[in-house]
């Protein structure tokens, strides 16, 4: 079938949750993709932050091929070798001690929310369950992660949403302190607000948030679904700041194109998830874990992270130059912002 025929079929059979461009992509290699009619494109979206190594990286393809010929799925009622291998790789290269695997970023954030509430209940009782998140944030499309998301446009039509979430301005420590109540159990934020417009957290802000959480016995959760796994020039975005979260989440780039999510936590926090408290049928799936192992090893052993830092610095420099060269007519407009640079 040609591209036009496939698009016509989509109008009949697919749920109308997307409004895609009239392009059917059928092949990818590196930063290029091809449509059903053979036209070539540069992919600046990278599967929405998924293809950190590019499309069909040979080491990821080989890992998937080899694993698919041996074992594609097995229940978590048994130990899964690839899951254990990937967990060790992530723990040994992060501030976390334990990993829970699932299928997506939304599920990873759901797990983080559940763990924060369970930990708080275990240590402080039943009245401490609220999580403060940031205005302009995005944490997923499930009901709980929609409630956590600080953008009204994503929540419209799905009310009532689960209670227990409030939102404060990003990079505003005073607003966060003012929002704390005896019911607060955690603060959840993205080190870089991706869907919110690529808004970078200030180094001093994140350090102060960490200190505030320590003083008030609150958990600090970082959502690194879109900015983790090599997307910022470090394996994890928190490394730019010298600030360690109690819990952080990954997905997207982790699987190299396969569906996987992960919630990572410190040992003392992770202890609140005992047998039966949380689960995922496909969490730790051998196929997805094999792909993720290949991704993480390539990020650690190749030159991708250094190249990412180099290209990121170049792009930022050129954007700042353009911003200075072409200021808004009439001066700086209300609501516009300077380009923030990630701490090194």
Commentary on this structure:
Pfam families: Aminotran_3 (PF00202). This is Aspartate aminotransferase family protein. One of its GO terms (molecular function) is transaminase activity. The protein has 344 residues and is of the alpha/beta class. It folds into two domains: 16-49, no CATH class; 60-301, Type I PLP-dependent aspartate aminotransferase-like (Major domain) (Aspartate Aminotransferase, domain 2). It is built from twelve helices and twelve strands. The chain has a seven-stranded mixed beta sheet, with helices on both faces. The protein has a three-stranded antiparallel beta sheet with strand order 1-2-3, with no helix packed on it. It is globular, with a radius of gyration of 21 Å. The model has no long low-confidence stretch (mean pLDDT 94).
